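Table S5 (text form). Sequence records supplied for joint modeling of the two-component complex.
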Amino acid sequence: MKQTSIIDIISPVMVGPSSSHTAGAIRLGLLARNIYHEVPDKVTFKLYNSFARTGKGHGTDKGLLAGVLGLNVDDTRIKDIFNSDIAKSIEYEFQYLDDFNRHPNAVDFIFEGRRNMKVSGNSVGAGEIEITKIDDFSVSLTGKYNTLVLFYKDVPHMIARVTNSIHVNIASFHCDRSAKGQDASMCICLDGEVSQKVIDFLYMLDDVYMIRYIEKLES
Amino acid sequence: MEKNISTFDELREACAVSGKQIWEIIQTQEAEFAEVSVDEIRRLVKRSLDAMKESIKSGLKSKEMSISGMCGDDCDRLQKRYEKENSLFGRTFEKITTYALAVIEENLRMGKIAACPTAGSCAIVPSVLIGVSEDLGISEEEQINALITAGVVGRIVSNKVALAGAVAGCQAECGVASAMSAAALTQMRGGNIDQILNAVALALKNLLGLTCDPVCGLVEIPCVKRNPFLAIHAVTASELALADIKSKIPLDEVVDALEQTGTLMSPMLKESSQAGLATTKTALDLKEKLFK
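The corresponding structure-token record, covering 511 residues in total, follows.
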């Protein structure tokens, strides 16, 4: 059985009013920020369904922006984020959409800057989140584990080459590709930490286009 | 390592075998599972307790409205009443109800709270735990012990039912918060383990079927006022339990009933705002004004 802690029951300490629509939004923003890994020039937030309809009243828009700017779930500056100096560093825009093929609390982050990137995710309840897509690759990131994400060319032995160099227990493993021999992605959730040396080594592997080491979020 | 305690019967048994209190057993077990010290577990519990105290303090001082403008100034109203007039039940009742409004209103104005177990039910445990502690002179260590016991009550229920209105209605949010508070209160007043678990059963039993039908889909109506109501509900459960009044249905079976009730509850009444208070004429008018 999945182990819940009493600490999960009596926390998080967060700014209100909703764990799914506020804390979840902030955590999605934080994780998207870790994935993009640079300061963007502009972020467009596409909010879907319940996020779009009740987001304003729950401060979902403020939460998403605050997360992208690196503010944590208990940061009381979030309430006034639109007027704060921190928010002046980037350009941002919100779009409110209905799409019933998407999760009730879904969001896309469209990052523009030195490189462009689209990150999609859902707030799945009680502050829990999942990032489901980076650009066109499906991934599975919850912020609960340190995670390695690799984009690479779909060639034989790639998984073995990567996992052989990680000396940490793997909690979950998720692969996807656009087509045989084309672009592919790997998403590896880890029980421990990976050193910069390992990350550098992986990046040097043939056929690896991009690598991200995404640290888990504070609980 | 000991087996994880997943039912209330197992918890009662573990207490009986070891002769220890609920919080003693649980803090040790939590530390073992997380591979940290007991002190670290208590530090994390204190972090929530401190956030609760802070949220009471800031909530009492503010009457800023929520983003929607529907709620936010009721705590101020209640405080003004108690400045002029005493409540029927004395000072502790006044504290619990005003603290509950203070915290839940702080939540809706995007203030800092401890979700316990959720944001929409975040005022029930702090108002009871802290309001009573102040009046009875309960030490911080004992407050931490009480919050550990409240936490394990929520944890054991959550083994069977997700603590989310969208899954099982408000019985699983404010209902469970009230049961957690009843446990904390009964322990702080010196109740034994049977009395603590009976308080939980009595509180939960009387909230079965509570729906989640928020107006405009926001954590405001009826959530704000429900928090002080269910805080006092916890006191009633604790008072009965301290008199050795027993729930005729054992606690684990009450939890089963809660799970079944949650499953049978229409999805229209589970945080989707498709029925109940959310679709009354006035609620629909408010919605139109808000989202025009």
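Note: The mean pLDDT of chain B is 96.
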